[in-house]
Amino acid sequence: MVVDLIGSCRAFVGVSETGSFTAGAAVAGIPQPVASRRIAALERHLGERLFDRATRRAQLTPFGRDMLPSARRLVHLADAMEHDAKRAKLRPLRLAVPDTCSTRDLAELDAEARTLGIFLEFRPAPPGERAELVRTQDVRAALVAVPAAEAVWTVPLGVAATERRPLPPVVHLETLRPGRAAGAERRRVWIQPEDDVPHLRDRVFRVRDAVGLQPAQVAVADSLTAAAAGVYASADLLLCSPAQATELGLGWRPLGDAELTRGFDVAAALGEDAQHLRTRLRAAIARCLGAPDQENPT
Predict the structure, then answer these.
(1) Can you tell me the distance from the alpha carbon of 109 to that of 286, in angstroms, rounded to the nearest whole number?
(2) C-beta neighbour count of 159 within 10 angstroms
(3) Which helix (H) or strand (E) holds 57?
(4) Distance between alpha carbon 88 and the CA centroid of its chain, in Å?
(5) Structural contact between residues 98 and 197, judged by C-beta atoms closer than 8 angstroms
(6) Which helix (H) or strand (E) holds 152?
């Protein structure tokens, strides 16, 4: 017969401290018959009586008095373990995220995760650092940049400009070629750091070269802020998602030269963390990344 050693010791301690099987059972949070059965099982397991059944009060036998300190230690350790377990469940899952995610987006993701019992702590970082943060265990998981074919979440990219320089329904980079006149305008396309990854950056460079733009007309900005400032101050364009264009007050259009898509997947030290993010939080992460069309994947 398997003995619930902790439950039996909890009943034993409760009865010994109150001097009553009824009161001791209440202290242990169990019915009196259950407390009696557990103490009897513990006595069989230990091979000796813990209480003198010949008296009306639950009185310890000499053996019971000798065993009580050990039983108390076991109960205290079990209580401490349960307390530690509750604290561990509340420990946040540190997640490296694109630094393009807004405070509101992250707050809404965190709020939805909490309803599922998942507590997140965010570490914004550029794409080149996020997977490294997982490797060095600075974070438990990261939303990493991957080609669209390998992605769980995909975000369409196009170009955006200020409303004072309206764009056609579809933008072709060849229309940015400067004219022959002296001092002709040389509009640039700014690539923000989030898209400074080979599967996106190199493809844009190939299109640039194919349509005859000058190398400086497609450039990687030091930051999204710097890229947006360049667009506000000139006729330049920003490579970005529709959600980013809306946030920045820019008019967004798709590119006709190439279908560009940000792709994201999860890198995690534990497979369970990755599974939770890919499934239970898939829709919330999609909204955070600006991919709301993927909220209900098949």
Answers:
(1) 9
(2) 24
(3) none
(4) 16
(5) no
(6) none
